[in-house]
């Protein structure tokens, strides 16, 4: 900043400074050097990427906000092991990720909390994007009420549908006679979310989803809304309830065999029906042709059985060994197709 | 003013009620906004630094070792018994008042979450008193010296970090060649021309510099071997800064002092750089920070010593550092439980993580800084260019004048267009049509520049319009061309206003999330961007994501730490711009 005031300096100082400059320059030439292509580090960390030098390049991931915490947890470890790899993950919602990024060929993976839909398949086909479907983990959609609502512990799937269908029950006693005569306040997922799609598919079907509810992508907002009123009800992925079990009360769901409460055990054993759902990630086959992306996909499938990571840190149900083997063989076929 | 209402019957009376009511309403309006913001910031700070877990002993320790000496320094500098009485009265009276009021509210009305009366005292009484005393103290000579030195230390470190960050995405080898072949010869020619009154050398400077830049780009891949990054930064940044500092000192104090003032920090910085290489730290950044802090500090110290007034103020940084060290020792020795802040060194130097304790903001900080630097340059150039053209070069009448007015109205309307629309524009125009890539730093910078362009243009136009026409006519009368008038009269006069507008606009740009989501900026990245065309994440994106995480520690602690970091960078950025503005104001 101060360099503009140097105009009327005396000659000798300048000569001295020039000598100093020359000295520094000579030091530069004599000292350590680098080659013109070894400048990628840019930060003096040139020596750091010696161990896994082969793997480098970007990995672009977008998609479901439900799968986002799982994907970024796995990526955190992968990025730590391979400093040359440059990953980025966006939380765009399942549908947003497919239509805006994945099927236009801009991302390598798309996470989804429901299977890819026909119109998205068409879009991908139009742009020549091929993909495989990998199961990442299992989630248990959790229906929650206020912890003070001691009059309710479980709902049957029919009652749940009555609350959320397109022409829904207005008061609780319309759902079951012993419930209080109070208005139902609903908090649920926005229609861009895979959670919304799956909720319709699993419980509502043709009956459609009500529009008389507070819609949001943020689990937080649902939790705040439900904890604000004794007569509120909401649904979201299991992770939020798993991390904050005292803040809300999860309802058991009765699918004909008595009420089952959502938990890692009931979801993995298949008892928690119909709300337990698989979570997916879709790698593009063209991207799997690149070694670092194929390696990450393998690593991801390996990690899906890791209980500490999937269940403990994120709050989803880890895949079983059989599922993992199945997914791994699907993946290896795809990698072979891409690289072979 | 009552005489305004005079009528035929004599002087009437005017009720003052309305005036008084208006005064208090406007007071209420200002207090409401400020108090609401203040409460928000206090809670964010408490969460970020985990102050709700700070024991009273811990607070007391640092209050005695750090705050009290600082206040004493300010009082000494102010050297005014009235101020001392007022400050001590406020501190003492405030202590009693806060303790009583706080306890009364808690026991009679509602419990106040996450606060105790000691913290309330700190925020409600101690902080305002410290701010007031800082202001009063900096008017005295020792205080001015102390805060000047402190400012150079903090500002220099921030500048070094910012430059180091920018060089993460710029190719240091091209910069090395461009500096050696272009910048250095051009500056040399220009300086030679100034000193020897040789106008030919001065005119040659620009073409020589340009040729050097072209040569640098061409030769980048031809030359096989380069000095290491550390030496490049030493040669292209550290040495020039030291030389410039030395020249400033040489002006006043002579060569020996100048050589010491410039050489000592340079030597320390070089040693620090080589030590950092060995210690595994980013050596170029260490070197830059040491140089940008050391040289201005040395120059300032030499000037203060030369002037000989308020030399005692130079002790202020030692007072503060000593307070921190003594406080830490006391806390350690007595085993006082200390809070565990979320905003710590790890938070600003590490990548995001799934566990709140390890979560960091580093890649997003770098992303934001790089984007904002690009936005600042782009929007300043585009904004000033547009406004100068509209104000100085277009006629006010005739068909062109009408066209200009239509343009003006449209620019004003653009300022009110929602930011999402700019995001769509960025996605369509920059990312897809021009092929700059979805979610890249350069796409984001261009989009955000467009977003704030109307604001910069309008404020720059206001500033240019407020330059009195007499000045222009005077310059015309001296035979100056329009270009000379604009360059020598209008722009220097309007610069403070232009900078103020740009500061406000940049403050908006750094906090924008919607356009970034639209252009596909990543939510989370684990490495800082390595070029302008790599994908990046920005601070608001990462903070928003954390706010949606299920773990409570993310939603309170980590988000708060992110918000404070964003605020600190915003304040730093605004501070720089305000310094530039004040300099421009003094210059004109």
TrEMBL record, chain A:
Any one Gene Ontology MF annotation carried by this entry is: phosphate ion binding
Q: Which residues form a coiled coil?
A: none
Q: Does the keyword Transport apply?
A: yes
| Gene3D superfamilies the record matches | Periplasmic binding protein-like II
**InterPro entries under this entry?**
PBP_domain, Phos-bd, Phosphate_ABC_transporter
Disordered as annotated region, ranges? 33-59
**Biased composition regions of type Gly residues, renumbered to the chain:** 39-50
* Keyword hit for Signal: yes
> Which keywords describe this protein according to UniProt?
Signal, Transport
Protein's name in the database: Phosphate binding protein
**What is the organism of origin for this protein?**
Halorubrum tebenquichense DSM 14210
- Biological classification of the source: Archaea, Methanobacteriati, Methanobacteriota, Stenosarchaea group, Halobacteria
From TrEMBL, chain B:
The record's listing under SUPFAM superfamilies reads: MetI-like
Listed GO molecular functions?
Answer: phosphate transmembrane transporter activity
Where in the sequence is the signal peptide annotated? none
Q: Does the keyword rRNA-binding apply?
A: no
Swiss-Prot/TrEMBL keywords: Cell membrane, Membrane, Transmembrane, Transmembrane helix, Transport
Supply one GO CC term from the record. plasma membrane
Where does the record place it?
A: Cell membrane
Membrane topology of this protein:
Multi-pass membrane protein
Q: Which part of the chain is the ABC transmembrane type-1 domain? A: 365-577
Q: Which GO terms describe its biological process?
A: phosphate ion transmembrane transport
The residues that cross the membrane are 24-46, 58-76, 88-112, 118-137, 149-167, 173-192, 204-224, 230-250, 257-277, 283-302, 314-334, 361-390, 411-430, 436-458, 556-580
Q: Which Gene3D superfamilies match?
A: MetI-like
- The keyword Transport is annotated on this UniProt entry: yes
| Family the UniProt entry places it in | Belongs to the binding-protein-dependent transport system permease family. CysTW subfamily.
Q: What is this protein called?
A: Phosphate transport system permease protein PstA
Name its species.
Halorubrum tebenquichense DSM 14210
